[in-house]
């Protein structure tokens, strides 16, 4: 099961994601980073079906960067979240929907911190705390060995120490 | 077999085709100062429960410094490997340098993505050496152990202090260097796993195919930092041998490829049946020794009692 957790505070957003990349019952990789940096103060956390996650997240990432190059300023977290949701919705009723669950965390100069929960059915909700668990393919790997944790505040994104639950080696 | 189910080969198909549920290519990326990548695979191609070819080639060279192992449907793997070679060659001609393994993996993943949801089944690992067009790296190929034991930042400062070109020696893998002061070139060994469902993973150790759980058990037990080339090769061979022993869809021979900054080299194909008989002989010898020792002890005891 892949886990994403996000918590919005007064002036920060804290996000954590597990590090396992698995194929049915085999843990192929134990240090996979599931967070994608959309800009200095926006992170996209992505879990779901095997290839879709990275493809979709990188597609969004490159488009956000393209917007910055074309227009000279970055998209706000709200705009980025809505852009992501629109893309998910457009692909939903096509032949190739993306089976991904997302959390978008960002810090805006005017609006402050924001955490957005997005679903594979392209639901979008701004929430003070949110989580995704229980992977879509029902991968049953318990005892996730480690979590990467990041913090976003007005100074940007900070990597915190990796969490290693006691007893889960 | 879990991975077999992933490719959906458990059911037999009406039109028989060359299924390859069974290869368990094994790749290992070293972290010792002498850098290399080892790729090993068995040679059995099965089709609906019978061995279609006992001598197939599952490790296909893509270019001089990149080798790909194949698992899944052999036709799909062979085709996509050729398409990948073509695209990499075009890139090399257009840009004057080889595309890195990461780039090749990304290219393959993006080419396979439109076929997601169809019955295309390719699970490949790309093992290659990036950069390496500079002579400095091959000269530093046999760097002494002291460099390897220090941290990466220390080794850079040591190299600079000795007045050498601060391009990465193999002791520092995954380092960015400025080659000629202009381009950022990440140089060294590289291993990527690419699957037709779109997965693309970078790692140090992968095992793919129906025999992979058995291979993983051997590898997880034996892999450690600082393996020499011979140790790594024998470990990879052992992993493939164990997998062929237990997995019905793997067997026959083992191919081992060794990739360094000079390119790939291939060991002769080995029949694993010989290995099996050699192991049986060794076991017989050990049992005999044990029995003799036992009898020797008993004789000693009985003679002691007599005295």
UniProtKB/TrEMBL annotation, chain A:
Domain of life the protein comes from: Eukaryota
Localization annotation: Cytoplasm; Nucleus
Similarity section: Belongs to the peptidase T1B family.
UniProt entry keywords in alphabetical sequence: Cytoplasm, Nucleus, Proteasome
SUPFAM superfamilies per record: N-terminal nucleophile aminohydrolases (Ntn hydrolases)
Gene Ontology CC annotation, any one: cytoplasm
Protein name as annotated: Proteasome subunit beta
GO terms for biological process, alphabetical: proteasomal protein catabolic process
A Pfam family annotated for this UniProt entry: Proteasome
TrEMBL record, chain B:
Disordered, as annotated region: 145-175, 269-307
Gene Ontology cellular component terms for the protein in this record: cytoplasm; proteasome core complex
Gene Ontology biological process terms from the UniProt entry: proteolysis involved in protein catabolic process
InterPro entries: Ntn_hydrolases_N, Proteasome_sua/b, Proteasome_suB-type
Pfam families on file: Proteasome
Residues spanning the membrane: none
Biased composition (Basic and acidic residues): 269-296
Gene3D superfamilies membership: Glutamine Phosphoribosylpyrophosphate, subunit 1, domain 1
UniProt-recorded name of the protein: Proteasome subunit beta
Native source organism of the sequence: Oncorhynchus mykiss
